[in-house]
Design a protein that fits this description.
mainly alpha, 4 helices
Length: about 130
């Protein structure tokens, strides 16, 4: 078990660095897109309409409910994994691990309930024709 912890502790800085690099690249991409769009709009270029359409298509693909169900399921799985880890430990970690597992479990359940409520509200708006 100690070897696994040592192995994971060696990988964690690299994983965090990779996540940071990916986020910085996403931020740079969004910044360049916005700068290009601003410049195209300011000179009234015909490409501005294409860029706005590209942004609109991206927003339509995300839909009205962007990923609450996926995030909720991942958090529930994380909470169950933490609880399972606490169950297989032989020392007195069960109580603290179950306590730690409650946070992602409740947040995941709340996200799934939120998604269900939003879907229900959209369905009722669609049914009434508003």
């Amino acid at each position: 078990m100690i070897q696994v912890i040592e192995l994971l502790s060696g990988f964690m800085p690299w994983v965090l660095l990779l996540i940071c690099v990916i986020q910085v690249l996403r931020l740079a991409h969004a910044t360049l897109l916005h700068l290009t769009l601003r410049k195209a709009i300011s000179v009234d270029a015909p490409i501005a309409r294409d860029l706005v359409d590209k942004i609109d298509q991206r927003m339509e693909r995300q839909g009205e409910l962007p990923g609450d169900d996926r995030n909720g399921l991942v958090l529930i799985a994380l909470g169950l994994a933490i609880a399972g880890f606490g169950l297989i430990q032989q020392d007195g970690m069960l109580r603290s691990m179950l306590g730690a597992a409650l946070f992602p479990l409740f947040v995941g359940i709340a996200l799934l309930i939120r998604r269900w409520l939003v879907e229900r509200a959209i369905a009722s708006e669609t049914a009434t024709g508003e």
